[in-house]
Amino acid sequence: MTRPFRPRGIDSTGKPASWLCQASWLVRFEVLRHRFAALCEEMGFVLQRSAFSANIKERRDFSCAAFDADGEMIAQAAHIPVHLGSMPASVKAAIAGSPLHPGDVVILNDPYEGGTHLPDITLVQGVYRRGRLLFLLANRAHHADVGGVSPGSMPNATEIYQEGLRIPPIRLVRAGQEHPALLALLVANMRNPEERVGDFRAQLASLAHGERRITEMLDDLTPSELVAFPRAVRAYSAHVMGEVIRSIPRGTYAFEDALEEGIPIRARITIGRGRAVVDLRGCAGAVRGPVNAGRAITLSCVHYVFRCLAPADFPANAGAMERLTVLTRPGSVVHALAPSAVCGGNVETSQRIVDVLFGALAKALPGRIPAASQGTMNNLTLGGDGFTWYETIGGGAGAGPHAGGLSGVHTHMTNTRNTPVEAIEAALPVRIEAYRLRRGSGGRGRRRGGEGIERAIRALAPIEASLLTERRLVGPYGLAGGGAGRCGRNTLVRGGRTMRLPSKGGLTLRPGDVLSIETPGGGGHGTPASDP
Q1: pTM, to two decimals
Q2: Of the candidates 207, 235, 263, which is a domain's last residue?
Q3: pLDDT tens for residues 234-263?
Q4: How far is CA 504 from the centre of its chain?
Q5: pLDDT given for residue 80 in this prediction
Q6: Is 67 inside a domain boundary?
Q7: Distance linking the first and last C-alpha atoms of the chain
Q8: Which of 102, 146, 400, 507 has its CA 20 to 30 A from that of 96?
Q9: For residue 209, what are the domain limits?
């Protein structure tokens, strides 16, 4: 049974905050934390509706969050887990070099400074009252191109320089004035510059809306609340996470899986009294390919997995990580250092880390953990004369002890939508020949894994394509006697001949070619009832 939580706060005089000592503190606390979460959701709506690219407008590949003045997250929207768990490191990097001033907005995407991969660009802005920095707002959006050797900036790279433009923390807006020379420099190194400018300004509009909303909130907050609330909401999350960990039997649980190229991902989770240590130092060293993940991504995976064990209304913020210790080895595939290529670490390695962490926890909580989901984001980039395109494609979710897996959905570290056929055909010289569930791809079991997706795209003009996928050789694992989900498959039909494509790499589509992507199904759970 969860023990009651009594938040503590300290006001500017060093005394307990009076608002937390009143009988109505719980109501006030709940109202404030939901208001902060709501303003993050509103920021997301503004970003989505203002964006130029279908990747942001249709797939909703973006995230928004609020932080205290020290860069500690206090609220987030229900957006992309891999974005949100890693964003605090980017926010701290943004304010580390020099203090923000009113009207400043910092831009960055450096994957070694809390970023994920180069297309995910983060903007950070402060919120002030009488010249004092009180809160920080941030959003992160996946831009359809940031330069590099191939359209879409998701190549099968061997070093970061091939992936696109790397942006250290730098002011895009100073004292409310956009820096035109910097913006020109950025988009000069990116394909489709008009679309890029439109998406940057959508991010700025999102921050401006968040600033207006939080300024309205400040009129309702007392000085004591301004100091006490961020501490109280983090303390609350830490308390709940501590109770979650206490519900797990104490001990050490290990699990291992691998990426496509035989790159092992190993985890040992030690559950103590209200704390957990996640040891990933046994993972492979960094590789020459694009699947290296920065430590910020690894932290976000750990946060996500334990967040899944918490109550549905759990406020995800910096407090949750206080009960989790994550051990990584610098220079490994889960703690990449420059100049390792990283574009696939964010989208593919993150999924495998989650698979491994859940596999370990399944030994401690067999009645709660689902089988592996598709374990890939099925990344596809397309580019040609006047267009660039990026999307991820859903697949099967793993079945759980009490229900089958969902079909044709994005799972775990991604939370985007599948791109509508109408949006693709309106933006690109292609025709969608097939878009359907891949029947029979879910793993067998008492509870069956979700089905993958089949999407077939006919090129109507020359197109440069790039694939970055996983689970094409070994399907997502089942649990408790359930079967593995069916592997994904990439194929090209040219002149009536079908050719199997590798999981990663680029190709040139000729007019009439059909590129088919079949995504993995989820693992099954439990021995099928028909088995002896």
Answers
A1: 0.93
A2: 235
A3: 998 999 999 999 999 999 999 999 999 899
A4: 20
A5: 84
A6: yes
A7: 39
A8: 146
A9: 18-235
